[in-house]
């Protein structure tokens, strides 16, 4: 029903009506009509899948106070990606806070005269006596965590794990700084309400906003999830440019206002190149602090090996994903282990390892979209949790994890100045070291080179955003895809647009 209504309204769009009638009058070919319907339907799905508000302004509420006005220039900047204005203004923002202190807040004042902050959200307006529980609890200093795309599906899974204490630990109070777009601001408010209703003891502050220069203030972690998915007919180069501008702006904002040692995890695709753009725009933050999420691919690879070997997946270790989070990524079965033994000893079907296994990991995201009707969200959130935990807890002896990191100084001869997934270890201090002695055979070397070439080509496309001169984009005849992309009727489709594929098959 929803789909029908959406299609009807989009077909009423003069552009689509024009295109449809042109197709009908000029071509009797079914293919042309199908393609036009496909594009229009995808546009309709876009409308259906994206929450919109008629006004970017929040309604007044007893629980909600706005700190400032919304400026037209800001609307344009977020919706149309114009360069950011000078950051003297603030945007619609809900600030939910207690003061940052070495001790987490505990109890409201007994006489009922609860102090409130001027800008705050609901229960987070309460000012607590930070000393009250000092004697019974030993809390760490509160950390600030920014999440972009905070009203999206991935974040909806992630935020509640962060707030529960299962990521940073049961003695780590956190503040969540939620970044969204103008049109998602009401959804962000809904997220804040659900966080409020969850009564998480460790969640001490929730801020929502649309300006990265405000939201990223003093953040210790930045989880950059929000990005535009590639739409129908959109070239990969265009996606690189559109999302690249978002990550250039967010890099600048982090550089200006975040903690100087902020750890940045880029999830929005194409995440490796977005991470490169982000770090190039944040010269004051160590390049080593930037990561592109390939942990989802590592988890997928472990699952496939466990399935084939008939073991539980915790028996699979030393799993490296090399390269780009795309269909050129290389899941390394040469160095991975099952029950401590080389995979090739346990799984003797080497043809399956080279072809079936590798492809199943590379294209897992696409298969999932076909089944689910949308791209991965819960497993992506879990893999973000895993990626963070790998940095804040010591890596088990002899094991490693995969993450996309800056290549300068790498021991594998990968071109410098890229963000490339490689095997890493951590002492649990938020930092990592590359594992240096991983064996690379000819098979791996050739595959890794292909992913490296793809990243070098992507980098050329975004030279204007990394300070490397004029962009030259030639991604070659084989336009490699993100793991979640599929092709229908000649339209490359990903993310929510892929719902159409599901509907078509019913
Ligand atoms: C995934 O690997 O599931 C996602 O990166 C797919 C996508 O393109 O959203």
TrEMBL record:
<keyword id="KW-0934">Plastid</keyword>
<keyword id="KW-0150">Chloroplast</keyword>
<dbReference type="InterPro" id="IPR015955">
    <property type="entry name" value="Lactate_DH/Glyco_Ohase_4_C"/>
</dbReference>
<dbReference type="Pfam" id="PF02866">
    <property type="entry name" value="Ldh_1_C"/>
</dbReference>
<dbReference type="InterPro" id="IPR001252">
    <property type="entry name" value="Malate_DH_AS"/>
</dbReference>
<keyword id="KW-0809">Transit peptide</keyword>
<dbReference type="InterPro" id="IPR001236">
    <property type="entry name" value="Lactate/malate_DH_N"/>
</dbReference>
<dbReference type="InterPro" id="IPR010945">
    <property type="entry name" value="Malate_DH_type2"/>
</dbReference>
<comment type="subunit">
    <text>Homodimer.</text>
</comment>
<dbReference type="Pfam" id="PF00056">
    <property type="entry name" value="Ldh_1_N"/>
</dbReference>
<feature type="domain" description="Lactate/malate dehydrogenase C-terminal">
    <location>
        <begin position="294"/>
        <end position="464"/>
    </location>
</feature>
<keyword id="KW-1015">Disulfide bond</keyword>
<feature type="domain" description="Lactate/malate dehydrogenase N-terminal">
    <location>
        <begin position="144"/>
        <end position="291"/>
    </location>
</feature>
<dbReference type="InterPro" id="IPR036291">
    <property type="entry name" value="NAD(P)-bd_dom_sf"/>
</dbReference>
<dbReference type="InterPro" id="IPR022383">
    <property type="entry name" value="Lactate/malate_DH_C"/>
</dbReference>
<comment type="similarity">
    <text>Belongs to the LDH/MDH superfamily. MDH type 2 family.</text>
</comment>
<keyword id="KW-0560">Oxidoreductase</keyword>
<dbReference type="InterPro" id="IPR011273">
    <property type="entry name" value="Malate_DH_NADP-dep_pln"/>
</dbReference>
<keyword id="KW-0521">NADP</keyword>
<protein>
    <recommendedName>
        <fullName>Malate dehydrogenase [NADP], chloroplastic</fullName>
        <ecNumber>1.1.1.82</ecNumber>
    </recommendedName>
</protein>
